[in-house]
Write a sequence for this structure.
């Protein structure tokens, strides 16, 4: 039967002021997934990594996405999937979205690309629902579309691709656990109108900065007066990392997704690497294990690297 | 002494979802102001219209702006200003901003353009403070810069010009009084986070639509789930006008500033005029006097039409 191999990238959701509506795709890290079509209506999952994720289809993020596609087409076929994850689950850079989006894009390829990208986002959100309890698209959309995605609205789904300058992204993943559900629960349900006004000025500024290639404006707009002050307390060293990274020349940044990863945008690779050094210094001093990545914005999203 | 004549246009602030951060300038109506420099440190105001606005400089919007400029330069000069307003005070299309911005631009012209546009916004906001008690820039900025303005932040002031498609604007001013201070007071100080998220998706969508010339996206993003549901109850016929204007082909629209004017954006003049007919029908039926305007976005802002 037909097989395909895809690379499914990590993503940064929220983008500081853009809580729940903005996300961008990373060049690295990415998961590698090999999908084979079966002539029986079943899903077989084979893990090729050390994360021991569930292999029962209904409990696996990629599995539920494949099941939802099989249910939609209802043609008696199935899939066998091998997954080698490089994006650590719980890191805050879209590990579950990479599994979900990668499975959706791979299956669509084997099916002759019968679904639109918007359809694939809908299928993939079933994986996010399993992972975090919420159907959100701010990792899924950039993972599938590439670049920077605006999720203007989730019901009905309205995804808008935002062009952006060639920015470098530095990510540090401090090896602590921040559960997405906890990170959601500590948010206040009500916020001050004056804070919301400041936030929407920044969101409009950030989007304008991306579209007009205005790096200063991007930097000025990377401010979050609503979510970050609450969530950053879950991330040791956050304030120090942020302050020192900006001193090292980063345009700005903040919590990636719901954390614990922290990302910074920089205009060139030299600054992005200086920012990485700052991140390493802070977490070495605090005594928390960490990974870092210096990468760029991935304009393609999930990539089919080998298909038949 | 030197004199200058300026045309200072009406403006639409808020732009539905962009409460306090977005505004656009109108081609019409505009106020006509003639400013003459005096060699004595005084401000003389002569009204050339029927609105009976105060002529004491400290109580007149243009007057306080001129006084603030005189205080800044401290050179013993003064100004005589003749004002013929065409923008009705209290209409919600930036009447006070036109007086304030027009006076600032005219004075700057006579002084040899020593101040930047950002400086002029600062001076002109003194007029808004007098008119409404709040230093806001969402009428002042588009009035001075022209086009669509984003006020990303008010402290420190950060104004960003947003390019936009050639849209038509239809405005109806139902002749009822909505005081800006009342319109502010009825707003809730706290809002739901989920509503704020929906709003910032729309703001990002609206700005993206302007910058990418995407009329459909502009239309989809002209939705306000926070301010309009509260303020529109002050404007008789609002829901009917809005629904019928969109049925007539308008991209969308809403309350102009804090009302009572209602504006609609359309992609061409024929639709803009059909929208005007709808507005006329609704307010004729309700029995409220009204003015309407069919105009375009003014890309220049305050214009010096005659200067020495």
């Amino acid at each position: 039967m037909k097989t395909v191999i895809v690379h499914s990238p990590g993503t940064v959701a929220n983008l500081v002021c853009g809580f729940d509506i903005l996300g961008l795709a990373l060049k690295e890290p990415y998961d590698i997934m090999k999908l084979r079509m079966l002539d029986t209506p079943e899903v077989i999952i084979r893990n090729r990594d050390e994360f021991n994720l569930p292999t029962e289809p209904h409990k696996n993020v990629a599995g539920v996405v494949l099941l939802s596609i099989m249910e939609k087409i209802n043609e008696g076929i199935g899939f066998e999937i091998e997954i080698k994850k490089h994006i650590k689950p719980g890191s805050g850079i879209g590990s579950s979205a990479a599994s979900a989006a990668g499975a959706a894009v791979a299956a669509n390829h084997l099916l002759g690309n019968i679904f639109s990208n918007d359809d694939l986002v809908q299928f993939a959100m079933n994986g996010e629902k399993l992972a975090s309890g919420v159907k959100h698209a701010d990792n899924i959309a950039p993972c599938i579309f590439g670049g920077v995605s605006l999720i203007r609205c989730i019901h009905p789904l309205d995804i808008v691709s935002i062009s952006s300058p060639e920015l470098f992204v530095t990510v540090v993943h401090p090896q602590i656990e921040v559960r997405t559900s906890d990170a959601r629960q500590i948010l206040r349900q009500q916020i001050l109108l004056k804070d919301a006004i400041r936030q929407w000025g920044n969101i409009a500024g950030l989007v304008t900065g991306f579209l007009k290639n205005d790096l200063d404006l991007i930097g000025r707009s990377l401010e979050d007066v609503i979510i970050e002050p609450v969530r950053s307390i879950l991330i040791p060293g956050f304030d120090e990392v942020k302050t020192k990274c900006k001193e090292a020349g980063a345009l700005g940044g903040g919590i990636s997704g719901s954390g614990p990863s922290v990302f910074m945008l920089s205009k060139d690779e030299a600054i992005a690497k200086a920012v990485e050094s700052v991140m390493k210094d802070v977490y070495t001093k605090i005594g928390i294990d960490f990974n870092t990545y210096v990468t760029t914005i991935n304009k393609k999203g999930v990539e089919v690297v080998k298909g038949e």
